[in-house]
Amino acid sequence: MERNQKIRGSDDKSSRLAEAALAAVPSDSPTIFDKIINKEIPATVVFENDKVLAFRDITPQAPTHILIIPKVKDGLTGLSKADERHCEILGQLLYTAKLVAKQEGLDDGFRIVINDGPNGCQSVYHIHVHLIGGRQMNWPPG
Ligand code: TR5
C-alpha cells in the first residue's frame, strides 16, 4: 500500500496517533492528497481554484472540518519545509481558509491548524491547513 494511502475507518485517539507514527519519517513521495487533486479518489470538495483545493476531512473532529491544500506541492511537505518562494501559496492557503469559513457560516469563529512533523502529529506529508469549526474549541490543544 502506498504511503499514507490508508482510508481511515476509526477516529479514536490511538488510531490517530498510530497513523501519525506510521508517517513519522517525512517524505516527499506522493500522498493520498495527490490522488484527491487528480480526482483518482473522491473527496467532498467545497472550494477549488487553480492553486488550491479545499475538501472535507474524512475523519472530522468538529461539525466543520475542511482541509485546504496547494495543488502543487513544490517540496512543501510541511510548514517546516517552507522557503521564501512558498510565501504566496502559504498566503493563498490562509486566505482560502477565511473564504471557506465564511462559506460554511462559521461566523462565531473557527480554528486553523497546521500539524508539522512527528511531534505535531502530521500524518500526510503534503502541507495542509485544517479549518475546524461549528463547536466551541478548547485551549490548550491536546
Ligand atoms: O494529521 P495531519 O495533520 O497530517 O492531517 C491529515 C488529515 O487528512 C487527517 O485529518 C485525516 O483525517 C485526513 N485524511 C486522511 C485521508 C483522507 C483525509 N481527508 C479526506 N479524505 C481522505 N482520504 C480519502 N484518505 C485518507 N487517508
TrEMBL record:
Cited CDD domains: PKCI_related
Family matches, as InterPro entries: Histidine_triad_CS (IPR019808), Histidine_triad_HIT (IPR001310), HIT-like (IPR011146), HIT-like_sf (IPR036265)
Entry's transmembrane regions: none
Residues annotated as catalytic: 128 (tele-amp-histidine intermediate)
Placement of sequence motif Histidine triad motif: 126-130
Start and end residues of each HIT domain: 32-142
GO MF, one annotated term: adenylylsulfatase activity
PANTHER family (alphabetical): HISTIDINE TRIAD HIT PROTEIN (PTHR23089)
Protein name (record): HIT domain-containing protein
Source organism of this protein record: Rubus argutus (Southern blackberry)
Taxonomic classification: Eukaryota, Viridiplantae, Streptophyta, Embryophyta, Tracheophyta
